[in-house]
Each structure stands twice: as structure tokens, then as C-alpha cells.
């Protein structure tokens, strides 16, 4: 009969395996897409056996969902962690744009922005993976709209569209041309949207 400690130890190991595999899957998704994720590829990349991966996740779709959830955790750590130190509205928007650009330049994901990569891949699909991708994108847009509202934007949805469009274009061009100048141009354009706000 197993003791509570043994059960807890197994759970801790399972959680560590889940996080390790999900994080690697999120990395792969930015360069090769969520659809490219396989148990074999993850086993080779992480050193976790195929049976170990399947024991934790059950199937490939569960791994893909976990990759999106882990990407959200990474995003919170890399982009949002210090943003809320800034005052709501224009100061926080500037901090958010700065932090987002820094996260790309730091190479947190090998293929640029996770949200941009997976939104293009899963934008017209249905199912649990697509739902998580949409949830991630909606969360980003909702954050922009909340801060734009606080900054006095007369149309937060339109201004969020502009900022998101500029940053996405900067991400795409940086990935295609391997040039930070494209990203910095996008940053300036996004900042201009903030500068034109009533409290900008």
C-alpha cells in the first residue's frame, strides 16, 4: 500500500514532466506549428520516454492544449510580470509595448511571438486547441482594451486593433528578415497610438 508521501512524490514528478514537455511543445509550436508536435519529437527533445509523456497527457491533443496553456504562463512571466508596476492607462500601455518588444528581442520563443504563430495556424479551426488559442488572443486584446479605456481612448477596440496590428507586423518582419529594425519601427508606431490618447 502506498503512503501519502509516495503518492505526492509521484504527483510532483508528474507535474514536473507535464511542465517540461508542455514548455518544449510551446517552443516547437513557434517554429514548426502546433500540428507538428509529436510524442516522438517531444521525447527526443526532453529525454522523457514516449510512455511517460502519454501517461501524463493521454493523447496528442492534450499536449497541444497544454502547450498553449504553458505559453500563457511564459507570457505572463516574460511580458506581464512588471507591467502592473506602471500606473493604469497610458503609462501601463507604454510599459506593455516595451515589455512585449523586449520579450521578442530576448528570444523567449525561438520562432517569435507564440500568439502570432498559433493564431495564424488555428484561426479558422474548431476544437479544444483552437479554443485555447482564441482564449489567449482574446486575453491579449482585452488587456489592451482595458488599458486603452483607462487612458481615455474614444474607441478602445479600434486602438487595440492598431497596436496589435503594428506589433504583429513587427514580429512577422523580424522573423522573415531577421532584423530588429522592423520590430523597433513597429514599437514606435504602437507608441504613437498611445501618444495620441487624451492622457497620452
TrEMBL record:
Gene3D superfamilies the UniProt entry points to: Homeodomain-like, Tetracycline Repressor, domain 2
Q: Which UniProt keywords apply?
A: DNA-binding, Transcription, Transcription regulation
Which domain of life does this protein belong to? Answer: Bacteria
* Keyword Transcription found: yes
Using the record, list the residue span of the signal peptide; answer none if the entry has no such feature: none
The keyword Metal-binding appears for this protein: no
Molecular function, one GO term: DNA binding
What protein name is recorded for this chain? Answer: TetR/AcrR family transcriptional regulator
Amino acid at each position: 500500500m502506498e503512503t501519502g508521501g509516495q503518492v505526492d512524490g509521484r504527483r510532483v514528478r508528474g507535474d514536473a514532466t507535464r511542465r517540461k514537455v508542455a514548455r518544449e511543445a510551446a517552443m516547437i509550436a513557434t517554429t514548426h506549428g502546433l500540428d507538428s508536435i509529436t510524442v516522438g519529437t517531444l521525447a527526443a527533445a526532453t529525454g522523457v520516454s514516449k510512455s511517460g509523456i502519454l501517461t501524463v497527457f493521454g493523447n496528442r491533443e492534450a499536449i497541444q492544449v497544454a502547450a498553449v496553456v504553458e505559453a500563457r504562463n511564459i507570457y505572463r512571466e516574460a511580458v506581464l510580470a512588471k507591467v502592473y508596476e506602471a500606473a493604469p492607462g497610458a503609462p501601463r500601455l507604454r510599459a506593455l509595448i516595451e515589455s512585449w518588444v523586449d520579450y521578442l528581442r530576448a528570444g523567449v520563443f525561438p520562432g517569435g511571438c507564440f500568439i502570432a504563430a498559433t493564431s495564424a495556424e488555428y484561426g479558422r479551426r474548431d476544437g479544444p486547441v483552437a479554443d485555447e488559442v482564441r482564449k489567449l488572443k482574446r486575453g491579449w486584446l482585452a488587456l489592451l482594451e482595458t488599458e486603452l479605456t483607462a487612458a481615455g481612448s474614444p474607441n478602445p477596440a479600434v486602438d487595440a486593433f492598431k497596436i496589435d496590428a503594428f506589433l504583429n507586423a513587427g514580429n512577422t518582419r523580424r522573423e522573415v528578415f531577421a532584423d530588429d529594425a522592423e520590430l523597433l519601427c513597429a514599437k514606435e508606431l504602437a507608441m504613437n497610438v498611445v501618444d495620441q490618447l487624451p492622457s497620452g
